[in-house]
Specification:
The chain has 130 residues and is mostly helical. The chain contains six helices and two strands; from the N terminus they run ββαααααα. The radius of gyration is 19 Å and the shape is globular.
Length: 130
């Protein structure tokens, strides 16, 4: 979960499977597929799609609201009076949240699994001793 500053407001975003569902329901396209299309933005900033970034923020913000009323995309964007499209910090925070939430590496998962196995083995050894 991250907190972003957009239009002077705190916006909490969370990259979860629920964000994937909300994105698909609202925009009739796959969030991960759209993110893959944005991979070359760092090499070629002319490829940036501001509406796609807003869609990503909206879906992750709605996922964070979990059960609380949340405006439609059009209503949400309409409530923004100012949006600085040159804010590299905002863009970086959004992309980092998406990367950490949607693209967990197998190495990370293997480390977590290894840690869990190690903990179980330690418990088993302790139980045999005790």
């Amino acid at each position: 979960m991250r907190e972003l500053q957009i239009d002077g407001k705190q916006v909490r975003v969370r990259a979860t499977p629920l964000a994937l569902l909300y994105y698909k329901q609202e925009f009739k396209t796959d969030l991960l597929g759209d993110l893959m299309k944005m991979q070359n933005i760092r090499d070629d900033p002319s490829q940036i799609d501001i509406v796609a970034i807003l869609q990503l923020i909206w879906a992750m913000a709605k996922a964070d609201s979990l059960g609380k009323p949340f405006p439609s995309f059009v209503e949400w964007v309409g409530s923004l009076e100012n949006f600085d499209i040159t804010d590299q910090g905002l863009f970086a925070a959004v992309m980092e949240e998406a990367a950490e939430g949607f693209f967990r590496s197998k190495a990370q998962a293997g480390t977590e699994t290894g840690q869990a196995k190690g903990t179980r083995a330690h418990r088993n050894q302790s139980a045999r001793r005790g």
